[in-house]
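Assess this:
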Amino acid sequence: MRTPWADGPEYVTQCPIKPGGVYTYRFTIEDQEGTLWWHAHSRWLRATVYGALVILPKQGSHFPFSQPKKDIPILLGEWWNKDIIVIQRQTQFTGAAPNISDAYTINGQPGDLYRCSSQDTLKFLVNPGETILLRVINAALNQQLFFSVANHKLIVVGADAAYNKPFTTNIIMVGPGQTTNVILTADQPPARYYMAARAYASAQNAPFDNTTTTAVLEYTNLRSGANSRPLLPQFPAFNDTNAVTSFTSQMRSIPKNNIKVPNQINENLFFTVGLGLVSCTPGPRCQGPNNTRFAASMNNVSFVFPRRTSLLQAYYQNIPGIYTLDFPPVPPVKFDYTGNVSRVLRQPGFGTKLYKIKFGSNVQIVLQDTAIFSVEDHPIHLHGYHFWVVGQGFGNFNPQTDTAKFNLNDPPVRNTIDVPVGGWAVIRFVADNPGVWLFHCHIDSHLAWGLAMSFIVENGKGEKQTMEPPPPDLPQC
């Protein structure tokens, strides 16, 4: 809050930290408990530069559930055997989709289903009857992931540094950028059990890494010599959207005193999200479908990052020529978003277009997936804010019928929402954190193709509502 200079996306809130450079992020944690994470936001360095950020209850307060005996961060990652920056450059040069990853990881280790790491599989020891809090973080660059622990129930108690009403499940789905806290009780016969993650891949006919990463949950009272192969959990099919819907539909927030979902909306926005194609004729041969290169957009605008300075610095110092304030609040053209889309709509426009919001506004955004290239589940992240997810569904959003179904009593609180494949999600938030905030798909290949935009939330009145000035060590371009 009020320290947007500590947010981090390159060319949005700061210029990149140069090789050998140093920058200290300073911020105050307010109204957040649970699990977040930190990561690089420059090019695709996030593939390996990340870690957990655990926010414990204040002294004198407690979890809204019984204190677990163990507290274990579980960071799900994605690994390539090649230099990830080389892969990014190749992708941008050819216009094709990036090479799929060679492995997924749990806390940096792929697990013993991959020959290269069979000797280094992580092992977590538990005593019978213990409760364990698993803080599951999806740090994968480009892939949504299912996560499960063989023969053990998972009680979901939080997501994205907010508590939820507990519910029990066998499996969770975590999109890139999301975190989910679950409680596991070691109540099974003494043995070795796999905790594992594998892909949820929703795009039609798109290649993906179809491997499984594992770690071992091992009971301490095993019989001598009982080192049999651990049991693997049963996963849904890689494209089982029903399983994902069943999981996400159970999310309900724990309402806080005096913090209510806004009913009166000042900014009612409608954003289409999805991929597109840019023609390479005339021009060099491209390796996307039918001699095209991939692009992505919101409301048919493919976001172009500046290079001379950051958007926040340009806004704060009134530097002209860096951005424009004409991002469309609704799609420029209405069409059957999830049906057969005309070829005319496949190619987006390009620009650094921002949308300005008055401080204190109540904002609603409808996020609508499109079938321009293929319908797909998109994890959309809003920097600087939590938001309420008041509704989700499939097909084209219908304001006459779908609005009546909104949950305004206990909707889940998130900072990253997976827009359902071929569907829509509606979020609401109060614009009470001034600054320039990136709003983007957390699949990094989609972000690089332009599936993003930025909000300017104007400074409020009064000391507590005004953003702090830039720190003296802010990196310069």
